[in-house]
Amino acid sequence: MTHARTERTALCDLLEQVGPDAPTLCAGWTTADLAAHLVLRERRFDAVPGIGFAPLAPYTAKVQRRIRDRHSWPELVGLVRQGPPVWSPYRLPAADALVNTLELFIHHEDVRRARDGWEPRELPEALQDLLWRRLRTMAPFMLRKAPVGVVLRRPDGARTGGRKAEPYVVVTGEPQELLLFAFGRQAHARVTCSGDERSVELLRSAPLGV
Q1: pLDDT at residue 139 is higher than 80
Q2: Where is each Mycothiol-dependent maleylpyruvate isomerase metal-binding domain found (predicted)?
């Protein structure tokens, strides 16, 4: 089973457990909203551009609400569990590995870490390494709005760069934690930040991510 499929299955199992009204780390979204977002992303390509392009966001939000409201909770989770339809490019193994692994991992944690008593998962080394490789590619984009320079550092000493500026902050943690930090989940990422107090404070509250 691929990492993407493993994350999809675990996420759907958790969604079934917590129900449609549970909180998530996505501001203003319940689990029903998050599930509808995943269905939209894989089945309504006409609405996908609004996910990252503000002028089209109202249309995307409208489609997402329709998906949420027109399906029962079991149907909605079932669509997420099925994954992309056969005609979707996301169905291709390369796209599944490149795009879906990160998307499903992040949203799985959005549900997990919105609950009391969460702890980081112990991920397979292969998945940690995959997340690190994706992070090295995406860090400059995800950290583009950082108000200070950023260096991301694994516990083994491996580093990758974000925004190059002075002063800078070194953020240390496992790849999954660094990824969540860079995706704007700073308050829920188990990392340590080294730098002057003001720079660390600014980075922890900055609008990071896509």
Answers
A1: yes
A2: 4-49
Same domain? For 63 and 132 the reply is no
Torsion region of 84: left, alpha or beta (phi above 0 gives left; psi -120 to 50 gives alpha):
beta
**Is 103 found in the same domain as 41?**
yes
Q: What is the pLDDT of residues 94-106, one digit of tens each?
A: 777 778 899 999 9
Task: Indicate if 108 and 137 belong to the same structural domain.
Answer: no
Tokens 């870490």 found at: 113
Tally of domains in the chain: 2
- For residue 68, pLDDT over 90 is answered with yes
Residue 200, domain extent: 127-204
Q: What is the pLDDT of residue 95?
A: 75
